[in-house]
Amino acid sequence: MIELINLGKQYKQKILFQDVNVIFNEGKKSFIKGINGSGKSVLMKLIVGYSTPTKGMVKVAGKIIGVDQDFIPDAGVFINAPDFIKSWTGAENLLYLANIRKVANEKKIRFLASQLNLEKDLNKKYKHYSLGMKQKLRIIQALMDEPTYLILDEPFDALDKNSRENVLNLLDNYLSENAQRILIFSSHNDMMEDFADHIYELENQTLLQIK
């Protein structure tokens, strides 16, 4: 369970949102929507622990982020993803990262890539990747260690319709494998509404549940 309790964030003199109270439950797909500049990315950073709230707290499995632990544990995160090493192939980049936690292996990486029609491109240098290919590689990175929590900020940017559908199918199957998993994703694309169990909108400095 992920809880946002009286959560508020102010940047300089601007209040982005305040008094946000939401519970994200296991096994659910939650979609956070809002216009550009509404604070979606900031909210996602607060959930992960990349930013500190002005007031309130984020609790994950009963522990306060930034107090009991610095960052959300066991999470696949896609927020302002850093660039990969340009002179390496896609596979080399992912295998290097996989070696840190030692959960994913090359077989797992290639399986995920095949689900996104990226397998034949894994041996290409990253510097030759299109925006859509880079996006898919970041999605694979978020999924490959089989995290309990998936926090994805604008994961569908630069993807065509078929690629978006492949990502949605992959995420749907991923959650169905383990009832404890939680997916929170943001987008400015309303096409994602049918995929979500719950929909929230950042508007008028708060987060409103609309589904």
TrEMBL record:
Pfam families: ABC_tran
InterPro entries documented for this protein: AAA+_ATPase, ABC_transporter-like_ATP-bd, ABC_transporter-like_CS, ABC_Transporter_VariousFunc, P-loop_NTPase
Coiled coil: none
Entry-linked SUPFAM superfamilies: P-loop containing nucleoside triphosphate hydrolases (SSF52540)
Domain ABC transporter: 2-210
Keywords recorded for this protein, A-Z: ATP-binding, Nucleotide-binding, Transport
Any GO MF annotation of the entry: ATP binding
PROSITE patterns linked: ABC_TRANSPORTER_1, ABC_TRANSPORTER_2
Domain of life: Bacteria
Protein name per Swiss-Prot or TrEMBL: ABC transporter ATP-binding protein
Lineage: Bacteria, Bacillati, Bacillota, Bacilli, Lactobacillales
